[in-house]
């Protein structure tokens, strides 16, 4: 994982699968190459293999279960996503909560498999407790702002600044800010406030010109890092 972190969560939008999902991945790969910036995409489990075989940018799962191999119908295990071609996974998104014991098990196995991990939290008070499980990164997202178009960096900047203070208590874990980010300015502010990058979904997945949107995100992220 490299700063600035730009993480695009495909979720299950109509642009997230099939030909459109693959085309978007290739578009984001072009932006990544042109700007020398790593762009991570979290895609539906059914698209991991197809997309990871076509692009060089990191492909993540959107969720992984911490259950053991065996009789667990419908579970998606760390071993599954590794075999499918994923380089990591989101865990505990507000739309897909995970029990703490299962998350701990999943993270331990992901580390053994060489997979990266991004644990989502909805408030800064959880940054240290989740950080002590030592994921690759913590993604802080107030759920009420997710998909709202109202950025956490503008509506609740204290969420980011407090999370930044907390993450400093945990060595070697990145902090990503998300929820409502929809413009380059939102990205710039988020990183100037101290985050290592941003997580975004609808602003890209529903955009008429996702390339233009992501380019603006990357350019503002790089500018913010230069000014730190």
TrEMBL record:
Keyword tRNA processing belongs to the record: no
Pathway: Carbohydrate degradation; glycolysis; D-glyceraldehyde 3-phosphate from glycerone phosphate: step 1/1; Carbohydrate biosynthesis; gluconeogenesis
Classification via NCBIfam families: PRK04302.1, tim
Oligomer status and interactors: Homotetramer; dimer of dimers.
Name recorded for this polypeptide: Triosephosphate isomerase
Organism of origin: Metallosphaera tengchongensis
UniProt feature coiled coil, ranges: none
Group of enzyme by EC: isomerase
């Amino acid at each position: 994982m490299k700063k600035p972190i730009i993480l695009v969560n495909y979720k299950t939008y109509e642009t997230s699968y099939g030909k459109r999902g693959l085309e978007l991945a290739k578009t984001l790969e072009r932006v990544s190459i042109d700007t020398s910036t790593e762009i991570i995409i979290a895609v539906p489990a059914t698209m991991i293999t197809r997309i990871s075989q076509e692009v060089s940018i990191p492909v993540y799962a959107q969720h992984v279960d911490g259950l053991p191999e065996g009789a667990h119908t419908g579970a998606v295990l760390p071993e599954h996503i590794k075999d499918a071609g994923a380089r990591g996974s989101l865990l505990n998104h507000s739309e897909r909560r995970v029990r703490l014991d299962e998350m701990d098990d999943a993270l331990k196995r992901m580390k053994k498999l060489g997979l990266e991990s991004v644990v989502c939290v909805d408030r800064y008070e959880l940054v240290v407790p989740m950080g002590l499980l030592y994921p690759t990164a913590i993604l802080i997202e107030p759920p009420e702002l997710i998909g709202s178009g109202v950025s956490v960096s503008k509506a609740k900047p204290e969420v980011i600044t407090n999370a930044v203070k907390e993450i400093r208590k945990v060595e070697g874990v990145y902090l990503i800010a998300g929820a409502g980010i929809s413009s380059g300015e939102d990205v710039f502010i988020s990183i100037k406030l101290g985050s290592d990058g941003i997580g975004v979904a609808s602003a890209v997945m529903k955009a008429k010109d996702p390339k233009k949107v992501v380019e603006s995100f990357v350019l503002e992220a790089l500018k913010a890092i230069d000014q730190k």
